[in-house]
Design goal:
Blueprint: H1 3-16, E1 29-35, E2 40-48, E3 54-62, H2 65-78, H3 83-98, H4 110-117, H5 126-144, E4 150-151
Helix pairs in contact: 1-2, 2-5, 3-5
């Protein structure tokens, strides 16, 4: 199996069977986001503890396979991370999706980097970049607790 096939398999698996899907009982931050051009909608639920570490993260939403896979992978990677680590990973991911050939973060394990790199092919399709990044921008809004709905068209 070549790398492109592996990446497609990861996206399809997370798209069909998203991890951390559903509204949790306990959360102290949340945010909504939408991509009106593709029809993607996401609601991120986050529980930060007193040390500002992610105790729990989940999402509800609907959308294309890329949007759902991206949200699923994101929630898996963020559990147990501090808000500063989360921001570093988000910045690294968004940089990789837009221009950087690879991830630079030292926080992530190689397996985690592989999961994120599977989304790197979307940079060839500008409309799909919005699908892949929607949940990530929405997570920033949840952490910042700014109460604004994220839209890919603002």
């Amino acid at each position: 199996m070549n790398l492109k096939e592996l990446y497609q398999e990861i996206i399809l698996e997370h798209g069909k069977n998203p991890r951390n899907l559903g509204k949790p009982n306990n959360f102290n931050k949340d945010a909504k986001g939408n991509n009106p051009l593709c029809g993607d909608n996401v609601h991120i639920y986050l529980k930060l503890n007193n040390l500002r570490k992610v105790e729990d993260i989940s999402f509800e939403g609907s959308g294309c396979a890329i949007s759902m896979a991206s949200a699923s992978i994101m929630t898996e990677l963020m559990k147990g991370k501090s808000d500063n680590e989360v921001r570093e990973i988000i910045e690294d991911f968004l940089g990789m999706i837009k221009e950087n050939p690879e991830l630079k973060s030292k926080i992530l394990e190689e397996d985690d980097k592989t999961k994120l790199m599977c989304l790197s092919g979307v940079k060839q399709y500008p409309m799909r970049v919005k699908c892949a990044t929607l949940s990530w921008h929405t997570l920033v809004s949840a952490i910042d607790n700014n109460g604004k709905e994220i839209s890919t068209e603002n």
